[in-house]
Design goal:
The complex is a heterodimer of chains A (456) and B (193).
Chain A: H1 4-11, H2 15-37, H3 42-58, H4 60-73, E1 77-81, H5 84-97, E2 102-105, H6 109-113, H7 116-122, E3 126-129, H8 132-139, H9 156-167, H10 176-193, E4 196-199, E5 203-205, E6 210-215, H11 219-226, E7 229-235, E8 239-240, H12 245-257, E9 265-269, E10 277-283, H13 287-292, H14 307-311, H15 313-318, H16 329-339, H17 356-360, H18 367-381, H19 386-399, H20 402-418, H21 421-424, H22 445-454
Chain B: H1 2-13, H2 34-44, E1 48-51, H3 58-65, E2 72-74, E3 100-104, E4 107-109, E5 114-118, H4 127-130, E6 133-138, E7 143-144, H5 147-153, E8 161-165, E9 170-171, E10 179-180, E11 187-192
Parallel strand pairs in B: 1-11, 2-3, 3-6, 4-7, 6-11
Antiparallel strand pairs in B: 4-5, 5-8, 9-10
The chains are: A alpha/beta (456), B alpha/beta (193).
Amino acid sequence: MMSHSKLAEIFNKDEAKVNWHDKALWYVREKRDTAAHHVKGWEYLRDLASGIKANVLSNLDNYLVEFEKNAQSNGIEVHWASNAEEHNKIVYKILTQNNATKVVKSKSMLTEECHLNPYLESKGIEVIDTDLGERIVQLAKEPPSHIVLPAIHKTKEEIDVLFQEHLGTKPSNGDPQYLTNEARKHLRDKFLNADVALTGVNFAIAETGGFVVCTNEGNADMGVHLSKVHIACMGIEKIIPREEHLGVFLRLLARSATGQPITTYSSHFNKPAPGNAIHIVIVDNGRTEQLSREDFRSSLSCIRCGACMNTCPIYRRSGGFSYNATIPGPIGSILSPGMDMKKHSSLPFASTLCGSCSNVCPVKINIHEQLYKWRQIITKEQKQPLIKKTILKITGMVLGRPKLYAVLGISVRWMLKYAPRFMVYSKLNAWGKSREFPKVENGNFDQWYKNRKNNG
Amino acid sequence: MGKSSILKSIKENKPTLISLPEIDVNSFEETINLVETFKKNVESVGGNIKELGQIQDLDLEIKNRYPNAKRIFSQISESVLGNVQISEQTKPKDLENLDLAILKGVFGVAENGAIWISDEQFSIRILPFITNDLVLILQKKDLCQHMHHAYKMIANRTRTFGLFISGPSKTADIEQCLVIGAQGAMSLTIFLI
């Protein structure tokens, strides 16, 4: 199992691509800012969202029961799954009951988490991801690298080659208009011939038993309304109490995600169309366990906008795959250790703790504080690398002794100035790996501050 | 099995009840020109919007904008362009080659350029998605400021299927380049009356 930093190193081999990735995501972050600044009462809106989600987690069992009752009275079938395996079996059972062999799927991070596609494929079912970004990574046999922008790690030239191979397109030097249009034709055919449509759920409303699915492409609706059967998969935490709360969440979601004022389509499903069926699968898969952890339970408030990824200086420069988890980035780094602490033990350290993730989070999850708390737990429970342990021990000792700190400061500054290059940029100095140190000035902050005071 | 164990686990693990905040809509009120804000936002999400002096001009405007549309469904009595009929026998796939759908918008939301439509208006749910192009007719008086008002306006509806639609289908999944016309309608034109 490779650590985050090792995987990040691989991503960083292509410097031009890293720079592009970094800038592209920062651009999305800036669009988010502009969108947020245009909303009067934005911060109050975040407070409301955070408060509603806190209430949801404290009353989740009752809301789920209320949701089920109302959904059933509208003719929706409700299923419950404790884990990924149960979830996959339920979905497969519904497919066999409907003699379905062709499934179209819109974006659902939950089904990624449950590894539904490989499971269904092993049973001979064709599963087509219909979000363009997800279709791209599916053709490339890769997982999504971002929850909102699944193919953000791919260049348009790479997509061009991929489409030539799988969709028989002509070489276009990566013309986005042409490639999107070819994908539209390809997916149109899949929509028209699908037996069952699978979607995620953005919000499920206890009060009405309905649910909302948001897309920009219209792929969820194209799948659902052309098939006889709609299966919607949701984690237990997708519940909101009342329909009026959608006013809060739909105002926040797209603005935080991409800087749009709302997604193109926000579809409200309450009853199946005459002659059709809607199934909802409600999934736990480790969520109730996360609910038991007081310090980490608010991570379940996440509405999957991806804003924390777009703003994160680590994510932008290490790419989604460096996290090796279904949900990458800051929010993934506090969710994943709860699922498997050993596997994901390096993730809470993949952060500068700058707090930008918490600042942009539409439901105000204290992400960076939870990263810090996971570090405390992981350091106690997991064996740390010897070098890291030793360095931290020495650092602790030095920082606790002001005089030693001052002496060491002087010698390090001397070293940086006069020691030969091979010593300063040696393997032991991780900070010198891919960057030049700034010019060393005389004196330190302490001296500068004292002089400044003396000079009035 | 799943249900009882999930509910039991939640009961054991959930925190003590935290009260549900009430939404103070006054915090979001602004004095804005609804029509101008709506128009600006429709354009920002890639939609076309035009104010019509009178509904009689509608068909001429549609013909100008969509000169090649042959198979047209219209829900609007003021438009005579419709030549595709939809009945209970119509199957969703029958609409595969529909060029244009002309529908009434129930109301619009100024803050995001979204329009609410529902299957009370079109018996086949795939209609606004599968049509190559979509035209929505909206009364200027049917505009609200933001989503909190919007949910008040649909609070007492018959709940089957409905949606907020904001602009044409789009994607930026290839290197963040915005492309209008993904899997749903390739364009959206709104006529404000």
